Amino acid sequence: MVITWRRVAEGDLGVLREWLMQPHVARWWSHDTSMEAVARDFGPATRGEEPSEDLLVMLDDTPVALVQRCRFADYPDYLAEVAGQVELPDTAVTIDYLLGDPARVGQGLGPRIIRAIVAATWTDYPDASAVVVPVHAANRASWRALEKAGLLRIGTADLAPDHPDDDRTHYVYRIDRPVGETGTTALADCG
């Protein structure tokens, strides 16, 4: 099975909305699922008005996941909040992710997607020295996926949660650019 991705397009917003309404996603993303809210929040990235990337991940051409990727430096407030609590390189990139289809959860797909996106980051962001990902401490499935993908927990941070019912405790994970990285990446199955 081959993992590929492309930028989210306006025509994909309905799929994102469906995914955001799934209980396993809604628990951690706490997002208004009206079409207007989805268009408001994801539309700017689709039009290139935001420095972040919203990537629609496919497994054998079937959409299965969303990955958001950006440089911390493009969001100074977030950079300051995280850098004040853990070591954060100036050129670090971060990701956020969700598996949309509940039938695909628990099958090892999350770590495979994370590994593939991290590998591509070294090419897509040639100056990126690390990928650093804060994840809510109670979201065990998410931080276990990061660990299975090779990221290491480097600390704990006090950050605003995505869900209003959660406390502020986040684990922070990091993976550094491999020494001697050549800058080439395949989009094939990384697992």
TrEMBL record:
Enzyme Commission number, as recorded: 2.3.1.82
Group of enzyme by EC: transferase
Position of the signal peptide: none
Entry's Gene Ontology molecular function annotations: aminoglycoside 6'-N-acetyltransferase activity
SUPFAM superfamilies assigned to the protein according to its UniProt record, in alphabetical order: Acyl-CoA N-acyltransferases (Nat)
Pfam families per record: Acetyltransf_8
Keyword Acyltransferase: yes
Sorted UniProt keywords: Acyltransferase, Transferase
Protein name: Aminoglycoside 6'-N-acetyltransferase
